[in-house]
């Protein structure tokens, strides 16, 4: 029998989200020397706020942030700022006052510190006391996904089949070594597969497929005892991918079965400089208050930097 055909032995709803935010952000130094990479702005809102908004839109109102040293500004952002609010209120600046209050009203946010950055698997382990025996979502801040539809779909798959669920996106062969990649089997649902294998950052010739895990997971609580026994893997870190691979090999009654939801929408990768800049420009160009000024400037900028022969200038020749 295909594991996909089995009923869910544990219909517990997913209500909690875990957001790892303890990374050092070395790719964005020196900007991240004193400012968490999660607080770098996408126009005028920190990236991590988009992640929380996505969780809340999927009805995950209990959020645990896994933080570390120099991350206090994350806590401050999702707390009240009474002096600032009073100053804006006294000026009658209702719009900015609303934007300042919005983060503190998003969700019930909790915090726990990861003593040292020992990988995503270790960060998830730090959530064990808060999560307990409940299934939970993991949202990585490097991946921005504007709609909560993917997360909602993953929660639906968990409710139907149990086990754990990962988000998968097809990438080019030369990119597979940047991700954890999945071996998959089709089901009777076009966007759902059974995960048979997971390999963290494989060489292209060793990748089980081109379907890569992106930063959204629904984890069965059975992942915790597996993580406790998972040795450091690639990079000397405890990898969540390795624990999910072990679960995929287990029987459903032992917390096994891992499904994948095939995501074909748009994902913004803010984990490297070029993609971060593209994300900021994309978000800005879709803002009514910025687009009218920014788009003509961008067209002029592209024309100024076009090759002398005119290729790439948008002339169509």
Q: Encode the helix/strand succession as letters.
A: EEEHEHHHEHHEEHEEEEHHEEHH
Known CATH architecture: Alpha-Beta Complex
Radius of gyration over all CA atoms, rounded: 21 Å
The percent of residues in helical segments reads 25-40%
Family: Belongs to the UDPGP type 2 family.
EC number: 2.7.7.9
GO molecular function: UTP:glucose-1-phosphate uridylyltransferase activity
Keywords: Nucleotidyltransferase, Transferase
Task: Provide an overview of this structure.
With 317 residues, the chain is an alpha/beta fold. It has a single domain, classed as Alpha-Beta Complex (Spore Coat Polysaccharide Biosynthesis Protein SpsA, Chain A). It contains 11 helices and 13 strands. Strands 5-4-1-6-11-8-12-10-9 form a 9-stranded mixed β-sheet. Strands 2-3 form a two-stranded antiparallel sheet. A two-stranded antiparallel ribbon has the order 7-13. Helix 3 packs antiparallel against helix 4. The protein is globular.
Q: Which helices and strands, and how do they pair?
A:
Layout: E1 16-20, E2 41-42, E3 45-46, H1 47-57, E4 62-67, H2 72-77, H3 82-90, H4 94-101, E5 108-113, H5 120-125, H6 128-131, E6 136-139, E7 143-144, H7 149-161, E8 164-170, E9 180-186, E10 192-200, E11 211-219, H8 223-229, H9 240-248, E12 258-262, E13 268-269, H10 273-285, H11 288-304
Helix pairs in contact: 3-4
């Amino acid at each position: 029998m295909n594991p996909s055909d089995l009923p869910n032995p544990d219909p517990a709803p997913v209500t909690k989200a875990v957001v790892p935010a303890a990374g050092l952000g070395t790719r964005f130094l020196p900007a991240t020397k004193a400012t968490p990479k999660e607080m770098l702005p996408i126009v005028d809102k920190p990236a991590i706020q988009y992640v929380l908004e996505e969780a809340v839109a999927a009805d995950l109102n209990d959020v645990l942030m896994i933080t570390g040293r120099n991350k206090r500004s994350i806590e401050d952002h999702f707390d009240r700022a009474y002096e600032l609010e009073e100053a804006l209120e006294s000026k009658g600046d209702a719009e900015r006052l609303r934007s300042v209050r919005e983060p503190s009203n998003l969700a019930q946010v909790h915090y726990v510190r990861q003593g040292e950055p020992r990988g995503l698997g270790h960060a998830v382990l730090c959530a064990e006391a808060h999560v307990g025996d409940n299934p939970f979502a993991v949202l990585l801040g490097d991946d921005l996904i504007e709609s909560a539809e993917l997360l909602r779909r993953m929660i639906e798959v968990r409710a139907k089949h149990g086990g754990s669920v990962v988000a998968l996106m097809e990438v080019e062969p030369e990119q597979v070594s940047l991700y954890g990649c999945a071996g998959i089997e089709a089901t009777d649902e076009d966007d759902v597969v059974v995960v048979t294998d997971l390999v963290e950052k494989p060489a292209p010739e060793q990748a089980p497929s081109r379907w890569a895990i992106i930063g959204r997971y629904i984890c069965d609580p059975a992942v915790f005892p597996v993580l406790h026994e998972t040795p450091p893997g690639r990079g000397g870190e405890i990898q969540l991918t390795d624990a999910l691979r072990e679960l995929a090999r287990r029987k459903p009654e032992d917390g096994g079965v891992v499904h994948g939801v095939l995501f074909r929408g748009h994902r913004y990768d803010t984990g490297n400089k070029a993609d971060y800049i593209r994300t900021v420009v994309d978000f800005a160009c879709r803002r009514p208050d910025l687009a009218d000024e920014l788009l003509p400037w961008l067209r002029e900028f592209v024309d100024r930097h076009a090759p002398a022969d005119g290729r790439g200038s948008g002339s169509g020749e």
